[in-house]
Design a protein that fits this description.
Layout lengths: L1 H17 L3 H8 L7 H13 L16 E5 L2 E2 L4 E2 L10 E4 L12 E10 L10 E11 L10 E4 L12 E9 L11 H4 L4 H8 L2 E10 L6
Parallel strand pairs: 3-9
Antiparallel strand pairs: 1-2, 1-4, 5-6, 5-8, 6-7, 8-9
Keywords: Signal
GO molecular function: peptidase inhibitor activity; phospholipid binding
InterPro entries: PEBP, PEBP-like_sf, PEBP_euk
Length: 217
């Protein structure tokens, strides 16, 4: 009996050591979190120097790195895209946020154009146009996630020869978040700042590209 008990104890211990817990697996796969200080400064400087930060797009202090790609071309803080390359929705992902459980925290992201009708506006007036809204997204290290498209993607086809600054913004959702479905007629005057304040969303990351009607090839 004594020998059997010892063998049973050793077998149990070996199984525990050989099979890490789900929490350990999650922590290992999400070991890279946040955004480096250098990358954060680069994002802030790009937004400010391109004057993306305005009354239409909130000031940004990044907590996550936001990666966006149309096909094999990455969005990189204001680089130029051809109109024909942005007809369908890109792939968007972001890093885990420091100090937040990546498996238990959800995020929303939006694609807005703050340069409607043009970067200069009409008599100095511009509005935001909402091109895309997705909720319940999670960091890229979470393989099993189910984001929800709240506003379907509309292709980037500016009727302007000046390049619009198409801006991707990632927000942390509160636990009780319920997204609004934005009707077509509201897209052209979407107040992202008022929406985020009303819904308790906290901005954690962003990226942007430039595109104009003349960017055909």
């Amino acid at each position: 009996m004594h020998l059997s008990a010892c063998l049973s104890t050793l077998l149990t211990a070996s199984l525990v050591l050989a099979s890490p817990t789900p929490v350990e697996k999650r922590q290992s796969s999400c070991s890279a979190v946040g955004i480096s200080a250098q990358s954060s400064t680069r994002v802030v400087n790009a937004f400010q120097s391109s004057e993306v930060v305005s009354d239409l797009v909130p000031p940004l202090q990044p907590k996550v790195a936001v990666n966006v790609a149309y096909g094999n071309k990455q969005v990189n803080l204001g680089n130029v895209f051809q109109v024909t390359k942005t007809l369908t929705a890109p792939k968007l992902s972001f890093s885990a946020e420091q100090g937040r459980d990546p498996a238990g925290t959800k995020y929303s992201y939006f694609l807005v154009d703050p340069d409607v009708p043009s970067e200069e506006g009409v008599l100095g007036v511009r509005v935001n146009y909402l091109h895309w809204a997705v909720s319940d997204a999670q960091p890229s290290c979470i393989a099993d996630q189910s984001p929800s498209t709240d506003t379907i993607y509309q292709s980037l086809t500016p009727a302007s020869t000046t390049r619009h600054r198409y801006t991707f913004l990632v927000y942390r959702q509160p636990a009780d978040y319920t997204p609004d479905l934005v009707p077509l007629q509201v897209r052209a005057a979407f107040d992202i700042n008022a929406y985020a304040a009303r819904k308790g969303l906290e901005l954690v990351g962003g990226n942007f590209l430039r595109e104009a009607l003349t960017d055909l090839a």
